[in-house]
Every structure is written in structure tokens, then in C-alpha cells.
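Q: My labmate handed me this sequence with no annotations at all. I'd like to see what the chain might look like in three dimensions before we decide whether it's worth expressing. Could you predict it?
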Amino acid sequence: MQKQANQQIAILRKQAEVIMGQVKEIEQRLEVSYGIYEAEMKFTPQINELYHLYKKEGNKVLSFISPKEWGSKMPYDLFLASVKLLPDKTWEVIEKAASKSQIEH
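A: Here is what I predict for the chain of 105 residues:
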């Protein structure tokens, strides 16, 4: 009886760890999303499209153009991340070039 109960408890603990990991990922994505929505956008982002987040004069700016496409003529102070808008309107960081705290608000 005890062995069976311990096995069930172990399974439930593993499931709880997985769920808590998923909760943490969603919380992080939400925090990043708030930071991105503070950025200047001169367009309406489309779901599943790739965009690039920059910083210029202390303000965040979202652009279609990647750092590679800008080359040496990049008009921004700092590249923060390449991001994709997900169907739930949160943002997924695809490539990060700066500390996460600079992406968040």
C-alpha cells in the first residue's frame, strides 16, 4: 500500500513540476510582452511574423528590419532581440542580444 501511494505521489510531484515550469514560461513571456508593447511601433504587428526590438535614446522601437539588414548603418543605439508575435498576442523571444531586463518593462 505505501509503495503504491509513494509511486503515485512521485508521479504527481513530477506533473506539478512540469506545470510550474509552464507557468513560469508563460509569466516570463508575459513580462517580455509588456516590455515590447511599450515600444514604438509604426505598424500593426502580424501573428507569427519576425520583428526586431531596438533601443534608441532610451526608448524601445520595434522594426521589420534585422540588425544584419541594417549593417553598419543601423539607426539605433542597441539591438535587444528578435521576437515573434504569437496567436495569444504575447511575444516569443527568438534571439536575444541583450540582457532580458532590457526587453522587459
